[in-house]
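Quick check before the chapter quiz. The format below is the same one you will see on the exam, so make sure you can read both the input and the output lines.
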Amino acid sequence: MLSATDALFSLHTSSDGKAASNGSACSSAVNGVCFVHKRLSNDSRDEDDVGISNDNQTDTESESSDEDDVDDLQFKCSNLLLGSQSSHQDASRLSAASHTSLSGVVLVSCHQDGTCKLWDLATRRCIANDAISGRNGPGLAVRRIGNHQFIYQSRDDLGTVSLHDIHRPSEPIVQIYTHSTTFCQVAPCCYTTTNQYNTTADGDLSTSDRSHLIALPTEEHSVAIIRDLRCDPTTNPLYRIDVGKSYGILTSLALCHLQEKTQHLVLGCGMEDGSSLFYDLRTNGSPWLMDKVEDATECIADDMSKDMCRVKLGKDPVLSLDLCSRVTETKTSIVAVAGCAGDTDELSELPEQDQGTVSTIKVKLANELACDERSDTTKTMNASIRTKTRTCSVESGGKVGVSVCRFRPDGRMFAIGGWDRRLRLFDRASSKPLAILHGHESSVTAVDWEGNAPTSGLLATGAGDGRICIYKVFPNTSLKR
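Here is the expected output.
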């Protein structure tokens, strides 16, 4: 049954503590949020922290599970702090003792006015109003790297992307100048956890051994690069992918590492013309390696390589893209979720099955098809649309566009932030809606799941109204910590 709920609590980022009214401008509009954990007092640095040697780090492959249903999950979201009479209550007046489980959890947020704020969720207080100073442009995105580090991307003259430790945020560990002038956001490498009991000491689900890789936009609007954060940013990147100008500018990126013997690295590119392209980069003789493309003068078309594919979602730009991998003993598969812009009047003229602005995409790798004896297709990577889903009703005249989409770390569900001021949760396997979350008065522009969200249920959103909402959704308390 579809559930509707308010936020667990909210944080107001404007100086007067009030959210912007619907349709009004807000200089503290939230463009990005991410959860980060404080390091325990007896810890030094985690092995997944970038900037230290990981030469001796080894991977322990966990048994995979392909359990997709959510029947055993419960929806829990408290109205204690947000109700019809107190929806604008100042977070600083709320009792910190009611949620001691948030101890050590910090939320990082970036804003339209260029500030990067840090929030102690246990006390619901802002502990740093501008943790990263000196940027001359709006904050564009913040993304978690490991447990204690985060990436901050700003839309300044240099298109700066920097890596920071939560304990020393004002001192960047790495700084990269992309010179990008678009709104395309950086994408850290992620992978879907397959062992539900595989947690770290801090309770965060284990991270990929490729977490030091990030996909970045460039000054060439149809070109993406992948860099290793452990290396000197002035050196050449690992990969350079020229999508081609025929698709318009690059509007979104996603990067996923498949935890298996073949070590696939898959890049997803959302484009201005409504196309999504996918690249299997870690193949023998990959044409996108820098030593292969240094002398290249043209992009590789989608019909020229068996390790890339394209699917057309519509004619509106793909504003957000995320990838989820599923590995079993017999096959490896990738599911992508894409959120597109959308004009209500134009969509209303289309058949109902084509009105969706949320698409789930099945991506098959070339080696998977080659091993599938039942497949009668050519042995090339391919992608197909599984479902297209609407947010609000087109007939109601609501705003149907999507700003952001994120898979939960275990890949069993995904969150969609819409132009209609709502956050929607969907089941990955069926693409059926699970819940509608309320709390914002303008478009939801930022979403992040806490690293241990399958157990904690923690989810954060940000919007143009300058408000950050914290939710607790489908926590599975039966999982071991």
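If your answer matched, good. The longest strand covers residues 318-327.
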